[in-house]
Predict the 3D structure of the following.
Amino acid sequence: MEPASGTVEDVTLRITRVRSVDGEVVIVPNGQIVKVTNLSRDWARAVVDVPVPATTDVTRVQEVLREVGQRAFADPRLHQLLLDEPSVMGVESITLDEVNLRMVARTLPGKQFEVGRDLRARVALALSREGVSLRATTTDAPSAQDEAMAEDRARAGGAA
């Protein structure tokens, strides 16, 4: 039997009804439930992994991530979802092309996905302002898509 995951909508003596992220309703006989992971009890954790090219100054990226966390915690809208200031865990993994840094935030139960999306957007914007790319650089010639995007930005008056 495939595992069911989603939001529990109803629990009776015999069955548990779960709504998946796709909107499907899954009915599970309680006798078949072997393991339960509860993402809505006490607190949850938003995990934001930030891949940057291996040539990037990791110390500076960590500083930027800390600043993003401080600003996010100071934002009244996000502050009500966060239990404490997001923290930078450091380097999670290293490959030849990229370094992956991890940022985590304790949130109210069930709000980890909303907070994670918001933090990712803030991180992308902050790193873009710093001139840090979120993809590994290649020595290959730019693709037609890259060139088209650069032309679009140039026409719109943005930086390439």
The longest strand covers residues 44-53. The beta strands are 7-11, 15-19, 25-29, 44-53, 87-94, 98-107. The first helix runs from residue 58 to 74.
